[in-house]
Amino acid sequence: MDRRTFNSALTGLASSSLMGCTTLGSLIATASKPQKTILYQSVGARLTPYDVDVETGTLSAKAPLFMPSNVQYVWPHPLKPYLYVSTSDAVAGIAGTPGKVHRLCAVKVDGEGNLSMHGPVKDLPSRPIHNSVDATGRFVFTAFNNPSAIRVHAIDLDGRLQEPIEQMPLDPGVYAHQVRSTPSNRAVILITRGNKAEKDKAEDPGALKIFNFKSGLLSPLTNLQVGGKGGHGYGPRHLDFHPTKPWVYVSVESQNQLHMHTFDGESLSKEPLFIKSSVSKPYEESFPQIVGPIHIHPKGQTVYLANRASATTIEQGKSVFRGGENNIAVFSIHPTTGEPKLIQHIDTQSFHVRTFSIDPSGRLLIAASISDMWVKDKDQIRHTPAALSVFRISAEGRLSFLRKYDVPLEGGLQWWIGLLNMPLGGL
């Protein structure tokens, strides 16, 4: 459990009368224990822990845990040593193979960061694209992309998953991509990307679907379709919350933008206060350049987005990188207004970073590329493996490249990574 997650959990618990058997005293004692930093990485169904030396930026792999099918997303319990892992054998995308094995799993983390299954897995109706845990650690939210949907499972006091909670009919939008509870824990935001128009298909609108949340139940609150066009021309992917200010930053995939909203009660401002481009130059709408994940530095002075491109063309009989940006965009955050200002693009030295993570101390950023790529270099074609790219974060939030670890994919995809602090010896 990292310090930011711990503080968010306390905020949620302070607003809730249901603390179970956990006390603030025990939480404070846990947070003060010596901790170690662990990187968790998924490749296909394999979930691997790495010991992380934050001082040197070096990684040491440990024994993996194999999940029921390909890992889709992972989220830690805010108070206890458990991870909640969604898995699927479906192929990503709108027209991908729907698959047959979709699960939500509880995984136990021991005092050294090693993993083991914890209690029975729960069947899911379709491919889960994202999952997260509320601030009290009592509920897991799961988002599904095709068809778009949201589900809530209860968590018992031992961290095991219970059955899903029946909900009233809800509008889940089109192509959900992330689900997060707000810092107050009184609302849940389902980020729905929509879909770009295709030759024989009209555009599907994007939106931020905001629901009231109480005792595991969701009810409609707000439907934000930014831009005044009913959600057309708006394709949000992920958001992150500032650790101390009432500011929310959204990566807008289809438009390669960063949006900044403020809270309006439990909802968000109807339109962003600031809109910034994430890329170094404009691209035609048809060009396959998109922005991906977003994370705010634990101290709140910078926000990071991944720009990604992986389209190919045929050269010398091989599928070769077509062009575009694969970098991390770094924005400083104005301490008074919250305005983001682009200060850096840094190459990931890999292709299509779908996921990256910042260590809880704010000193390392690690980016993970989905797959390998053939690249034309002058008259030669060279192979670039999938990788973990490690960056040092400076005091002002800029990145400098430290090293890269090539990742053997063995037929899978490097789909998710996360950096966590775990108390030595467990909780």
Proper CATH architecture: 7 Propeller
Q: Overall mean pLDDT score? A: 91
Structural class from helices and strands?
mainly beta
Shape field: globular
Helix content: under 10%
Question: What is the CATH topology?
Answer: Methylamine Dehydrogenase, Chain H
Q: For the CA atoms, what is the radius of gyration?
A: 20 Å
CATH top level class name? Mainly Beta
N-to-C span? 10 Å
Q: pLDDT below 50 for ≥5 consecutive residues: which ranges?
A: 5-30
Overall number of strands? 35
Total count of domains: 1
Summary, kept brief:
This protein has helices spanning 3-14, 24-31, and strands at residues 35-43, 46-53, 58-61, 65-66, 70-76, 82-88, 102-109, 115-117, 122-123, 128-133, 139-145, 148-155, 161-164, 176-181, 187-192, 207-214, 217-224, 236-241, 247-252, 257-264, 267-268, 274-277, 289-296, 302-309, 312-315, 318-321, 327-333, 340-347, 353-358, 364-369, 373-377, 380-384, 387-393, 399-406, 414-423. It has 427 residues and is mostly beta strands.
Topology of helices and strands:
Elements: H1 3-14, H2 24-31, E1 35-43, E2 46-53, E3 58-61, E4 65-66, E5 70-76, E6 82-88, E7 102-109, E8 115-117, E9 122-123, E10 128-133, E11 139-145, E12 148-155, E13 161-164, E14 176-181, E15 187-192, E16 207-214, E17 217-224, E18 236-241, E19 247-252, E20 257-264, E21 267-268, E22 274-277, E23 289-296, E24 302-309, E25 312-315, E26 318-321, E27 327-333, E28 340-347, E29 353-358, E30 364-369, E31 373-377, E32 380-384, E33 387-393, E34 399-406, E35 414-423
Antiparallel strand pairs: 1-2, 1-35, 2-3, 2-4, 5-6, 6-7, 7-8, 7-9, 10-11, 11-12, 12-13, 14-15, 15-16, 16-17, 18-19, 19-20, 20-21, 20-22, 23-24, 24-27, 25-26, 27-28, 29-30, 30-33, 31-32, 33-34
